[in-house]
Amino acid sequence: MDIAYPIRPEAAAAPESGIVTLMEYGRGREGLIPLWVGEGDLATPAFITEAATRSLAAGETFYTHQRGLPDLREAISAYMARHYGRGGPIERYTVTIGGMHAIQLAIRLVAGPGDAVIVPSPAWPNGPAAIGVVGAQAVEAPLCLSESGWQLDLARLAEAVTPHTRALLVNTPANPTGWTASLDDLRAMRDLARKHDLWIIADEIYGRFLHDASLGIDARAPSFHDIAEDDEKILYVQTLSKNWAMTGWRIGWIEAPAALAQTIENLVQYSTSGVPVFVQRAAIAALNQGEGFVAHQIERARRGRRIVHDALARIPGLEAPPPAGAFYAYVRAPGRDGEALARALVDEANVGLAPGGAFGAAGADCLRLCFARNPAHLETAMARLVPVLEKALAGPV
Amino acid sequence: MDIAYPIRPEAAAAPESGIVTLMEYGRGREGLIPLWVGEGDLATPAFITEAATRSLAAGETFYTHQRGLPDLREAISAYMARHYGRGGPIERYTVTIGGMHAIQLAIRLVAGPGDAVIVPSPAWPNGPAAIGVVGAQAVEAPLCLSESGWQLDLARLAEAVTPHTRALLVNTPANPTGWTASLDDLRAMRDLARKHDLWIIADEIYGRFLHDASLGIDARAPSFHDIAEDDEKILYVQTLSKNWAMTGWRIGWIEAPAALAQTIENLVQYSTSGVPVFVQRAAIAALNQGEGFVAHQIERARRGRRIVHDALARIPGLEAPPPAGAFYAYVRAPGRDGEALARALVDEANVGLAPGGAFGAAGADCLRLCFARNPAHLETAMARLVPVLEKALAGPV
């Protein structure tokens, strides 16, 4: 730390994103195909943006409800009822500045200095980082990679529990691994949480992107909603980002027992003070009229998965089972340095992947590729990428 | 706390806004004139909203720079150079989800459990509340009310410093009191901070709204920028909300020594993950083309101040010196219960004021009124409000 600027250790320790580091490395390369970030390449559809435009034209530019517009919270509840079989009262829902803010609020509710939160790993790095920012400890519980894909290791998860543990942060379907909890996995985690009086923070934002039909419930991934009791100690975080191509809008929600609604409203008040009304109008349009677009996105991700994994399967030495859910290939090159591979792919293939170590130490020999993209671009990317990876993996470890 | 839902004490202790409580009391009253919230009644002007609309139409709906668009940070630096005489490199500026998020980041940088932050009081409650949310203690240092208005009590401020103190959170011109630090006040606070190695968190969001010309520097309020050295330990928080009628947009910035830029970027990444590009485009339009509108807003607030204080001066027993800056009347009815008065004003005058106690214990016998509003509505409000307050203050204490 710069002694001229003494700051809190929790703030100083917040890590730089390992994804962004590689993006900086590749910035400005002409023709580079960017598959490193967790977003598709479709702009938000017009029926959504136009809802925001109309709201702006109508002068909806003032402060609004800290919990979110009642109309949006009704739309969220109705969406959850349609897809998850239960919506519940709008007191369960608070609108947030994206899924990240929902995670920050969830963590702020349940963890602080001296506390630990367990995260199945590899994991999206922002969860563990946000746990660190409140002064708590993120404890990684490794997933395991088998020929059929990434799997929960329940024993490792249970071993990670200590008297300091306050919560499990569970992302299913998972970024980056595509691991998708079965109903049995969910029950086992729920039972573990009950046994130790832990919260579950459930990040199911990729729930609609399910590729392994054997797991599916109405074509979506299993959810804690399928097995939880009403008002169980679960905080669900959600976002409009992925389903409706709204990454840049920064809108999501947190779902919690209604008894916590006022506390969550207070935490919104003292962090972001609400979400713009015109952004909320766009979210209402997305939730109420967006099913056709979501279906298109899911179909496109399936096609991308096929293109990418058909190509990756040709590379000897690469462990690349197709993921059960989400929209990433997360592949392992045993004994290799994922970051060096990612740099080589920028330099030699002009394709941008995220280094697997950005998602935890367990992924240091991995790479992540987002396949929610234009199929033609994916074909080109794979044609360039495969020979470079083949060459790299043919050399000595 | 609900034992079914054990949550962190810092989260559970986050207070409900005393302003919102009264708004709930008055919700749905037909014809009520709302002067309780800190925002004007003008919608964002079209040249600003149209910049957002164009951006949306152009498909700017993706993730963006965590620090904010370089174009916006250039516009901020140029604005600061024009109005405060120094802009500096864009590495000093990070775009945030409104001024509140900037305050949250500033507090997260400098305070945590075991730390204290001193706040001249009465104060906008969100600052002290955000200090509490990180587990630190907000220590109120009372301002004093004289016939010439609210004044800094430097001795009380100095007395409040302990070995736990990490920062002063200074809002000038102040919400709610209108207190506006002179250059001498600023130097004294800066010297106190230097002596004890404290940070200053400078909230100067009302700096353009100066009514006491004797204090003015180029028609704005004195700023720590006028007396600070380059890269002094000061974190400035700012917002587009007030000058450009953009309260509902949730965009502002934090200005900090460039050495902290990466840490601040990381804290943005793990709290909100950036600000929508289309909102940033609107902010660029505001900063670059908004001076005419700002001048109109300032003139309107001056007119509102005159209407309100001419009326308040007629009420015997009310201590109501016109404020030096900002756009609030914050008046004291010695010995009275500000919240009871505010409820009476809803019931009997159909006018909404904020109870003074919402801004700290020192304001329990006060009321706050926002006068950045339509002059005709203010005339009507005062005609209704004066007799009710006169009657209330004529009764026994």
Can you lay out the helices and strands and say which pair or pack?
The structure is a homodimer of 397-residue chains.
Chain A: H1 9-12, H2 18-26, E1 33-34, H3 46-57, H4 70-84, E2 93-96, H5 98-110, E3 116-121, H6 126-133, E4 137-142, E5 144-146, E6 149-151, H7 154-159, E7 165-171, H8 183-195, E8 199-203, H9 224-227, E9 234-239, E10 252-255, H10 261-269, H11 277-289, H12 291-312, E11 328-332, H13 338-349, E12 351-352, E13 354-355, E14 366-370, H14 375-394
Parallel strand pairs in A: 1-12, 3-4, 3-7, 7-8, 8-9
Antiparallel strand pairs in A: 2-10, 5-6, 9-10, 11-14, 13-14
Keywords (chains A, B): Aminotransferase, Pyridoxal phosphate, Transferase
Cofactor (chains A, B): pyridoxal 5'-phosphate
InterPro entries (chains A, B): Aminotransferase_I/II_large, AspAT/PAT-like, PyrdxlP-dep_Trfase, PyrdxlP-dep_Trfase_major, PyrdxlP-dep_Trfase_small
